[in-house]
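In practice, a research group might receive sequence data for several interacting partners and want a quick structural hypothesis before committing to experiments. The following worked case mirrors that situation: the sequences arrive first, and a predicted assembly follows.
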Amino acid sequence: MTQRDFLLVLGGGAATVAVSVVLFLAIVASQQPAGASTVVVGRRAVPTAVPVAQIERRLPAELRFLAPIVALQRGVAQASREAAGVFLVVLLTGATLVFGRDQVLRIQARTAGDAAEQARVFGIGVGALVALASGVILGFFVVLRSLVQSAPAGNLAFGLQTIVALLALVLLVVGVAALLGFTAASWRLGVWVLRRQPSPVLRERVPATLAALFVAAMLYLMAQLPYVGPAVAAVLLAYSLGAFVQARLVRTEARPA
Amino acid sequence: MNDRDTNVERAFTELFQRMPTEHAPLGFRDTVMARIAAESARRWRWEWLAAFAVAIPSLIFLMSTLIEHGDELSDGLGSIANALLGLEAWDASTSVYVDGIVLLAVALVGIAGLLVTHALLAEEQTRSRVHVA
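A structural hypothesis for the assembly, expressed as tokens:
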């Protein structure tokens, strides 16, 4: 066993212990009959949190040394509830990096260039987004009008459901394209951030995929900011779509170096 | 590369060109490639370790939660079904609450799944690269 293997096993063991302790305390906190509910959906009141002191009292005498970690577990639970969106973005970006790595690399390579090139990619995205929105609105209106004029009254609901299902399909296709573009953009931004790190250890040791996941999470958090968040989200969507269109739909000759 | 490097390289090239060509023994290449393949297969992949480190406690926790609070989950799903069928009216006062640790455990299991998939794909790519070589 090399030193690297030993450190890996040690780190893995420490991570297992840390995760296990937090999860064990969560089980203790939610134990019935006095424990708080874990899932509440519908017209029921959200459960109030069990006081930390009460959870500490529930710990067996041999495990009382874990009492100081109960407050930490409570903080992790609250932060995780707020961070569900970040988890989702990291999971989706990671899945795209694993399952669509070739596509992501191709998009990244085809959209490489200076600021002018990036602005062009963004412009393509804005154009595609505007055209798509116009097409969806017009298509919705035309189909809806023909449906109302031609369908018997009983089939109207079915027709409307079909339109909604078609809209969902369009959204799914656009979403997959945007996800590929977003992952490629996160990768590029991650590499850019890594190159500007003052520490050579960080520059050399941190993998580009990890940097891409970090940047994806940061971009999502930026899109949640008040006032500027919607603008950030719109720019991200337009650039991501533009990168996909540029790489997958536009055939260009190789540019001279 | 400066002139001195070029001269040294040229001298080496001339020296190697003067040496008589000698074929590698029969089976030499296959032996070397088999050893490389065996070493690649033996090498630890950190993804497996990281995946097991976070997935096993999370799965145990999720199973325990399902056993302990399974009725709450079925109540929640029933409430969603009722809302879909129009049997239950939802408004802004409707609660959608899931414990943060449950969300964290689900996310960790998902990330572990991705890590394992990545490790399996990388192993397959390494093996096929060795076989092609």
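Before designing any experiment, note the following. Residues 3-82 of chain A form one domain. Chain A touches chain B through 48 residues (CB under 8 Å).
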